[in-house]
């Protein structure tokens, strides 16, 4: 037993060496100066102090250029622009962010074109102007989007699906969608055809407020002179963009 108690010595056991070594040992003194010398340039060198700014390199250097005419904008990009705007509104109202999955689903399965998506933005603006108490939050945004998509597609497009398809895509029942559609039309006084100039302004505003996007710089004609949407171009030519009654009676079948 005595031999086992005398085996751990200061030279063999590293733990005992670390504990019993005097503080003024040459090894500890030799390790201190390199630490002080390495810290000195970090405090005095201004380049080292600016190192956190290198995080900005992870951001995209150049924004994605979008066409000047909203009709030529990709649907995926238009979804990002509108989802960012809706997210700002929702965060202002209830502090929660909106994911673009639902709007992406509507645009894909309901075959929404850029003019129809911009018309949904017009409906938001019109409802906010007519009803100051109208707010979009996480509880109302999904039903508003599917209702606005249904009204825009059936009122502004030459081809559209029936209510059963829109209800399935939006995740609501057909009876509920019919009530939402009728209530929506009454709220906007059946004025669902926006002025093409308004859509151009909305498009530019969405691009300006969304990071990572910018309009391409090109000397082209106005989008209104190139390729207007089929329904909107006809309305604009007749001068009925602002005061025409709703075109929702189009395609009034059994479940429209």
From TrEMBL:
Molecular function (Gene Ontology), one example: protein kinase binding
PANTHER family recorded: PHO85 CYCLIN PHO80, PTHR15615
CDD domains (alphabetical): CYCLIN_ScPCL7-like (cd20558)
Highest taxon in the source lineage: Eukaryota
Chain intervals for the UniProt region annotation (Disordered): 1-56, 235-256
Any one of the GO CC terms: nucleus
Entries under InterPro entries matching the protein: Cyclin-like_sf (IPR036915), Cyclin_PHO80-like (IPR013922)
Protein name (record): Nuc-1 negative regulatory protein preg
Sequence ranges of Polar residues compositional bias: 1-14, 23-32, 39-48
């Amino acid at each position: 037993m005595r031999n086992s108690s005398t085996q751990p010595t200061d030279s063999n056991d590293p733990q005992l060496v670390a504990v019993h070594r005097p503080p003024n040992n040459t090894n500890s003194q030799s390790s201190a100066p390199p630490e002080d010398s390495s810290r000195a340039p970090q405090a005095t060198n201004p380049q080292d102090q600016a190192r956190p700014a290198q995080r900005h390199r992870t951001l995209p250097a150049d924004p994605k250029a979008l066409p000047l005419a909203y009709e030529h904008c990709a649907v995926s990009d238009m979804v990002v622009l509108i989802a960012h705007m809706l997210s700002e509104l929702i965060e202002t109202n209830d502090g929660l962010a909106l994911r673009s999955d639902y709007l992406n689903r509507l645009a894909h399965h309901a075959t929404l074109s850029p003019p129809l998506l911009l018309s949904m933005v017009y409906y938001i603006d019109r409802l906010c102007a007519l009803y100051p108490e109208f707010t979009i939050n996480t509880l109302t945004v999904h039903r508003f989007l599917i209702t606005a998509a249904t009204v825009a597609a059936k009122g502004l497009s030459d081809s559209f699906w029936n209510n059963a398809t829109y209800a399935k895509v939006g995740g609501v029942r057909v009876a509920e969608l019919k009530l939402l559609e009728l209530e929506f039309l009454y709220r906007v006084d059946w004025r669902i055809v926006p002025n093409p100039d308004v859509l151009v302004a909305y498009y530019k505003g969405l691009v300006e407020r969304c990071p990572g996007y910018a309009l391409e710089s090109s000397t082209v004609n106005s989008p209104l002179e190139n390729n207007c949407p089929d329904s909107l171009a006809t309305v604009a030519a007749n001068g009925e963009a602002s005061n025409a009654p709703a075109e929702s009676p189009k395609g009034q079948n059994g479940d429209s």
